[in-house]
Amino acid sequence: MIETTTNSLATFDSDEAKWAAVLARDAAADDAFVYAVRTTGIYCRPICASRRPRRENAEFHADGPAAERAGYRPCQRCRPQEISLAQRHAASVARACRLIEASDELPSLDELAQVAGLSRFHFHRVFKSTTGLTPKAYAVAQRAERVRAELLTRETVTEAIYDAGFNSSGRFYAAATHMLGMTPQRYRSGGEGMEIRFALGECSLGTILVAASEKGICAISLGDDPERLLEEFQERFANAILVPGGKDFDAWVARVVGFVEAPHVGLSLPLDIRGTAFQQRVWQALTEIPVGTTISYAELAERIGSPRAVRAVASACASNTIALAIPCHRVVRSDGALSGYRWGVKRKRALLEREQDHELAGGS
C-alpha cells in the first residue's frame, strides 16, 4: 500500500525565500537558482560553503548562464557551472536502472553500486531517495511489467515464465499474485472472474465512483455524469465481475468522500495499484508531494531520476485512475499553469485551492 508522506518541498519563488535558502545552505535549492555577489563579481550555488555576502550585495539568477550574461564569473569553490550533485546522482541512478531493466536476474547491490560509481551503502540511499523505491523493489516492478507483457503474447504461461526471466516455475508462482494482483491464468484472460465492488456517490466535486478489488481501492473517479463514469469503469474492467458494493463497502466510500473533502487527513485504506515500473516510480513520487504544494512535470521527472522523461511523466500522471490518493493534481506546468488533469482542470484548481487554504489556515 502506498502511503502519503509529509516531506517538505521547498519553493523559491521570491528573493526573500531564495535568501533564506542561501543563509540555510538549503540543499533543496541547489538546482533552483544561483546567487551572485556584486562586490566580488562571483556567483555561487545556494549551498556554497563560502562566507555569505551582505544581503544588499546579493542578487539572484535562474542559473549559471544567466549569471554569466550579467557579467559574473563562477565560484571556484562550489563550481556552479558544473552539474549539481543531484544531477550526478540522477545520472548514476539512471545507469543502475538501465542495468536492472536489461538483466534477466537482479544484479547484486555491489554490481549496481559499481555501475553507479558509488559505494554500496551510498548507492542504496541515493537510489531510494531518487526513485522512491529500493533497487530490489524497482527490479520487482520491472519483472512484473515484463511478466504482464509476456503473459499477453505467449501461448502458454510456461513460455511467459521463462521469457520473463524466471528460471523456475516455482519462483514465478510464489511471486505471481503479488506482481499481477491475480493468478497468471486470470491475468491472461483479462481479469475474467475477478470480483470488483463499486459504488457511486456525491461529493463537492461532483459524482464520485469508488471501486475495490480484494486487494484494495483500484479506482476513484470524478465526473459530472454518473452514467458516463459507470461506462468508463465497465470498459476498464470489461472481463471482471462487477458487484455493487454492500453496506460494508459504504463505509469505504464514506472514507473516500471524506478524503476528497479533506485531503490533509490522509486515506488509510489499502490501494490496488497496477502500472508499469515507470508509472509506479512516478506515482510513488506523487504521494510524497505535501498537501498544499505543487511541482512541475520537469521537477517530477528529475525526482525519479529521469530528467528527460517529462512527457512520459505527464503520461503516467494522466494514466492514474485513483484520484487524490495518488495526487497528480499537485503537478503543474513549468510556468505554474494548470493542465492535463484526468477529471478536469476546474476540479484540479478547486483541489489545489482547498489544500492551500487549509495550509494557510495553519493546517488545523
Radius of gyration: 23 Å
Biggest sheet strand order reads 3-1-2-4
Given helix and strand content, the structural type is alpha/beta
The portion of residues assigned to helices is 40-55%
- Major sheet summary line: 4 strands, mixed
Please give the count of helices.
Answer: 15
What keyword list fits this structure?
364 residues, 4-stranded mixed beta sheet
If you had to describe this structure to a student in words, what would you say it looks like?
The structure is a single chain. With 364 residues, this protein is an alpha/beta fold. The chain is built from 15 helices and 10 strands. It has helices at 15-24, 64-69, 85-102, 109-116, 120-131, 135-153, 157-163, 169-180, 184-188, 226-236, 247-261, 277-287, 297-303, 310-319, 345-360; strands at 34-37, 42-44, 58-61, 73-74, 195-203, 206-212, 217-223, 241-244, 295-296, 331-332. The strands form 3 sheets. Strands 3-1-2-4 form a 4-stranded mixed beta sheet. A 4-stranded mixed beta sheet has the order 7-6-5-8, with helices on both faces. A two-stranded parallel sheet has the order 9-10. Helix 3 (85-102) crosses helix 4. The longest helix has 19 residues, at 135-153. The radius of gyration is 23 Å and the shape is globular.
What is the topology?
Elements: H1 15-24, E1 34-37, E2 42-44, E3 58-61, H2 64-69, E4 73-74, H3 85-102, H4 109-116, H5 120-131, H6 135-153, H7 157-163, H8 169-180, H9 184-188, E5 195-203, E6 206-212, E7 217-223, H10 226-236, E8 241-244, H11 247-261, H12 277-287, E9 295-296, H13 297-303, H14 310-319, E10 331-332, H15 345-360
Parallel strand pairs: 2-4, 5-8, 9-10
Antiparallel strand pairs: 1-2, 1-3, 5-6, 6-7
Helix pairs in contact: 3-4, 4-5, 6-7, 6-12, 12-14, 13-14
